[in-house]
Amino acid sequence: MDVRLSHNQMAKATLMLRFRAALILLLLLWPSAAFAQYVGTLNQIQCNKTASITTATATTTSVLTGVVGQATHICGYLITSSVASGSTLQLEYGTQGGPCSTPPVLSGALNLSTNAIVNRGQFAYVSVPTGAQVCIVTAGASVGATFDLYYAQPTP
User: Fold this and answer.
1) Are 67 and 131 in contact (CB under 8 A)?
2) Per-residue pLDDT tens for 86-117?
């Protein structure tokens, strides 16, 4: 009986050794959930520039001229208005050669009032393509607004 007992123990030990090796191999090859869920760049872009423009009429106005080979990263804006109500301002971007021709929209129409509208963070939350300019579109019977854009244009 002693021979059988030691033979069974050796078989169990070999089986456990194989099981441990397979488990370690499985854990090493298993994809990490933290990396699988990450989207975006590891480097946050901090805005260090400001562009300011004042408009008094309903029109499309270029706020920031794009730089060839550089994307513009936007951190936010500050809008102050002298109009009580009835006019809007919208942020968009487009190609050079006129105030934002073929413009994709960056914000919805913001209703202007004598209260300031602030949307600003320390880091960029939206980027426009390289070389694109940033514009505002104002609409309404009486428009009086100052628009400050906080942005970065890091060199590639």
Assistant:
1) yes
2) 888 889 998 876 778 778 888 888 888 877 78
